[in-house]
Amino acid sequence: KGSIVVVSTGMTLGAHMTPRCRSYIEHADIVIGSNPPLVEQWLESINPNYQSLQGLYAKGKHRADTYREMVDTMMAAVREGKNVVGAFYGHAGVFAWAPHRVVKEARKEGYEAHMEAGVSAEDCLYADMGIDPGRVGSQHFETTQLMKYQRQIDPTAYLILWQVGLAGDTTVKRFSTGEAYRQVLVDLLSEHYPLEHQVAIYECPFTALDDMRIEWMALKNLPSAHVSLISTLVVPPSQKMVKNQTVLDKLAELDLQQE
Ligand code: SAM
After folding, report:
1. Percent composition of the chain: helix, strand, coil (DSSP 3-state, to 5)
2. Which atom of ligand 1 is nearest to the CA of 166?
3. C-alpha distances in angstroms, 249 versus 17, 48, 136, 259?
4. What percent of the chain is modeled with pLDDT above 90?
């Protein structure tokens, strides 16, 4: 009668997928997904009915159209009465439109649909870089969104910028932007951080054979750095947290009343 489970395949091939996600893949009528090439081969070995969505990406094509087609492809299989698995790398629901959308649309049409959590680039980043997001807090933004809108950057917390390789791409049609675009990002960030502030480009490996990349540089050197579609920018805090005396006074008063 048709259903869909969106599963997360994790970041590193063969290492991150939960037993539940694997079981859903094994038992699906069809697995439809968007994953790095080796992961796609591996998924095909688990379930031969694997259909890749990677071919929907094209230079000059608006990514919103690509994502819409991904949802339509998965929904068409659900409507045919198949038990569909949507398989997306990392955590399927992190910085990804189509996986959330297909669950929403399938439920609206009365089909069973849910998402299975997984290991995202963010999870690997915390482990590999030794960052606890709870220590001083952590803000995450899609880079171009941060550039396009008036947002509040808190320089006392970590700032993690996703899709830095697409910084400033307002056309939503490119696979990279470039130095001049990253310079605009640096100009914006320099309103909150010194130009000498050390930032890192982080890339976690997709296979056990790939190397991890953690490259530190001064913020001012970001435009000329090598960034790709898998780069994430990590900006550590540049300032110390300032006490909120008004709240502290209120709490002290409450404590006195409790005694
Ligand atoms: N769903 C994915 C996840 O759970 O991590 C994220 C998908 S999002 C469309 C793509 C962005 O994720 C990249 O631009 C980059 O910021 C980050 N990313 C993807 N692969 C990465 C990797 N191997 N290392 C670090 N960041 C990565």
Report:
1. 40, 20, 40
2. 14
3. 48, 64, 22, 16
4. 95
CA distance linking residue 169 with residue 185, whole number of Å:
11
Are residues 99 and 91 in contact, defined by beta-carbon separation less than 8 angstroms? no
Angle (nearest 5°) at CA 113 between 35 and 72: 60
Question: Does the pLDDT of residue 70 top 90, yes or no?
Answer: yes
Task: Mention every residue, 6+ apart, whose C-beta is less than 8 A from residue 229.
Answer: 163, 165, 166, 175, 176
- The sign of the dihedral angle between the CA atoms of 209, 175, 229, 50 is negative
Q: What is the pLDDT of residue 186?
A: 98
Which residue ranges have their beta carbon within 6 Å of ligand 1? 11, 90-91, 94-96, 120-121, 162-163, 165, 202-204, 206, 229-230, 232
Please determine, for residue 187, whether its predicted confidence score (pLDDT) is greater than 90: yes
User: Of the candidates 149, 158, 174, which has an alpha carbon nearest to the alpha carbon of residue 238?
Assistant: 158
Q: Is the dihedral of CA 122, 128, 131, 132 positive or negative?
A: positive
- Other CB atoms within 10 A of residue 200 CB: 17
Atom 8, ligand 1: residue with shortest CA distance: 95
Nearest 5 degrees, angle CA 200-CA 206-CA 207?
125
Compute the distance from residue 88 Cα to the ligand 1 centre, in Å: 11
Single-letter residue type at 90: G
pLDDT over threshold 90, residue 5: yes
